[in-house]
Amino acid sequence: MTEALIELRGVRAAYPGRGEPVLDGCDFVFSEGDKIGLLGPNGSGKTTLLHVMMGLLAPACGEVLFMGRRVATEKEFRQVRLQVGMLLQNADDQLFFPTVLDDVAFGPLNQGLSPSRARDAAVQTLESLGLAGFENRLTHRLSGGEKKLVSLAAVLVMQPRALLLDEPTNGLDPETRERLVGILAGLDRSSLIISHDWDFLACAARSFRSIRHGHVHVEPPAIVHAHYHRHPLGGEAHDHGDPVARSGVND
Ligand SMILES: Nc1ncnc2c1ncn2[C@@H]1O[C@H](COP(=O)(O)OP(=O)(O)OP(=O)(O)O)[C@@H](O)[C@H]1O
Ligand SMILES: [Mg+2]
């Protein structure tokens, strides 16, 4: 039987002044081995769901369980955050040190690694994401896509057993987005991915959920199909390959 990593039971989450709660009696299970794509219109509560799962927002009612145990206090959620990595929707909320190296080494230092081992881990992770040589770059001067990738490095360097990714492809060019599909496919890590990029989700996720009216709904599996399209390479012969075969995740 697959083990539930994080479970929400009857969660109600609301923000002051918003009126209707965003999540209203919401049940959701994220299990070991899952690769879930989470869809939903703007403002439907996707980010809110992730924040509740990580203890960044306390539910008004209901409970959060981590590996079968109720978690409620900051101390309890700190244990969750050591094992589950979250990529925030806005990279500027994730990066707070002057240099890329400081940002990426912060997690491993926090996990108790020595400064030199934390540095090595950071350098290695940056390299694996195609960011070799970025160590001394100033974080606030990076482009939007670069910030997104550095944020991802800051998450992956901690080798979390599971990943919650909030719009990881937002602002990435097609080539970098493609690289990200490959990286996620190669990670073999339980993951919950929010995205409005359906093509990306079809490659990166194996099952799908959506949020509507404060509840999580199970969506049917993705069906890969061809369609007419246009893009700047349209006039030249080119090959898109088979994204599913390439990523190897939808078998
Ligand atoms: N801190 C906050 N204070 C007040 N309202 C908030 C706050 N954060 C989110 N909301 C509101 O809660 C609702 C759900 O927001 P949430 O960010 O979870 O949506 P989302 O599904 O992630 O949307 P998007 O696709 O645009 O990222 C929205 O109506 C939003 O305006
Ligand atoms: Mg969001």
What this model shows, in words?
- It is a single chain.
- With 251 residues, the chain is of the alpha/beta class.
- It has a single domain (4-247), classed as 3-Layer(aba) Sandwich (Rossmann fold), CATH 3.40.50.
- The chain is 34% helix and 23% strand.
- It contains nine helices and ten strands.
- The chain has helices at 46-53, 74-83, 91-94, 100-110, 115-128, 144-156, 174-187, 198-204, 243-247, and strands at residues 4-13, 23-31, 35-39, 61-66, 69-71, 84-87, 162-166, 190-194, 207-212, 215-219.
- Strand 7 (162-166), helix 7 (174-187) and strand 8 (190-194) form a beta-alpha-beta unit.
- Helix 4 (100-110) crosses helix 5 (115-128) and helix 4 packs parallel to helix 6 (144-156).
- The longest helix has 14 residues, at 115-128.
- It is globular, with a radius of gyration of 19 Å.
- It binds adenosine-5'-triphosphate (ATP) and magnesium ion.
- Adenosine-5'-triphosphate is lined by residues 15, 18, 22, 40, 42-48, 89.
Following the backbone from N to C, one meets helices and strands in this order, namely: EEEHEEHEHHHHEHEHEEH
Alpha plus pi helix count: 9
Please indicate the percent range of residues in DSSP E strands (runs of 2 or more): 15-25%
* Radius of gyration from CA coordinates: 19 Å
What is the fold-level CATH name, i.e. the topology?
Answer: Rossmann fold
